[in-house]
Design goal:
Helix content is about 20%, strand content about 45%. By secondary structure, it is an alpha+beta fold.
Length: about 170
Amino acid sequence: MSTEKMKKELESAFRSAMRQYAASVNIITCRARGTWYGMTATAITSLCADPPSLLLCINRGNNFYAAISEASEFCVNLLGTQHQEVSAAFSRTVENPLDKFSSGRWNCELDGIPYLVDSPVNIFCKVASTFSFGTHDIVVGTCERILGSEDAGRSSPLLYTNGQYTSVSAVN
């Protein structure tokens, strides 16, 4: 078997394996060139508590990539099961980035970074470091502030696995 064919088979098997991975659905937002930008993402994780920080992985082929590359700050909006439509809207490619914000209730702080008002949690970060690996850039953000809605403890997190949305059920 050729090396190229083995590589393609491994990539296909990897994609299939990762479809089994249940991941939290989030919307990353930022402000660049005076405009709001956002995208749905599952490639987000906490990095450490000292300093409080997270990392996000963004494909350089994604339309959002140029905006986050220019932004010095961003917000990670954690989604609950009630946000499926908002997630779907931010997954689409649109000509005008502001069109995505017609889904959901959005506001912004003094810094102009948009956040989903009824998100269980909004995590505002300053870009601390960025580095490339493969097709993606890994952005490390240090947390500047965190907002939580009144319903934060009552909302079930929106998850994505096997190409569909799902939620958590308690295990006894």
